[in-house]
Amino acid sequence: MSRVAGFETEPSTPRLRLRESATKDLPLNGGWWPRSDDPVAELPGLIMALDELGDGIVTRLLLHRPSWSSHPARLGVSGRVVTMGYFTTQPLNLLIAMRDSYGWRLDLLTVPPGTPEDVAELALEQASSDDNQVPAQFLLAGVEASKQ
């Protein structure tokens, strides 16, 4: 029997910023700054916030494996199970949320938990900008370099 993580977990309020435009040809739809690298503590709040966007619920997340302290395959959120995929080939700092709805996908910059607030805020601002052209794996490094 497999275990589903997170049914007892009270979700945290996510630090999430999304683009206003729905244009699909940009590399990111926004950014998220979790408080820790614990997926059971951090992901339920994010999933619930993304569910509020309407037109369905999040059914699957794809994550960069080395960025998380544990790797549950399934996560209980709001009485349902969300499938989790952790990949070493997933670009650094990228989280992909998907729904069963055909073609629905949201790409989010994931700012590491220990990032200084000023850097994290600038990264979230750029990731959610309607004219951002920088993919997740390069965005944070660019923001950090501009702060030096």
Give structural attributes.
148 residues; alpha/beta; seven-stranded mixed β-sheet; 3 helices; 24% helix; 25% strand
Walk me through what this model shows.
The protein is of the alpha/beta class and about 150 residues long. It has one domain. It is built from three helices and seven strands. Strands 1-2-7-6-3-5-4 form a seven-stranded mixed beta sheet. Helix 2 (about 115-125) packs across helix 3. The longest helix has 13 residues, at about 40-50. The radius of gyration is 15 Å and the shape is globular. The relative contact order is 0.23. The mean pLDDT is about 90.
What is the compact description of this entry?
With 148 residues, the chain is α/β, with parallel strands linked by helices.
Structural shape: globular
The secondary-structure element order is: EEHEEEEEHH
Biggest pleated sheet: 7 strands, mixed
Cα gyration radius (Å)? 15 Å
Distance between the termini: 51 Å
In DSSP terms (H or I, runs of 4 or more residues), the helix count works out at: 3
How many strands in all? 7
Number of domains: 1
Helical residue percent?
Answer: 10-25%
Mean pLDDT: 89
Topology:
Elements: E1 16-18, E2 30-32, H1 39-51, E3 58-64, E4 74-77, E5 80-87, E6 94-99, E7 105-110, H2 117-127, H3 136-146
Parallel strand pairs: 2-7, 3-5
Antiparallel strand pairs: 1-2, 3-6, 4-5, 6-7
Helix pairs in contact: 2-3
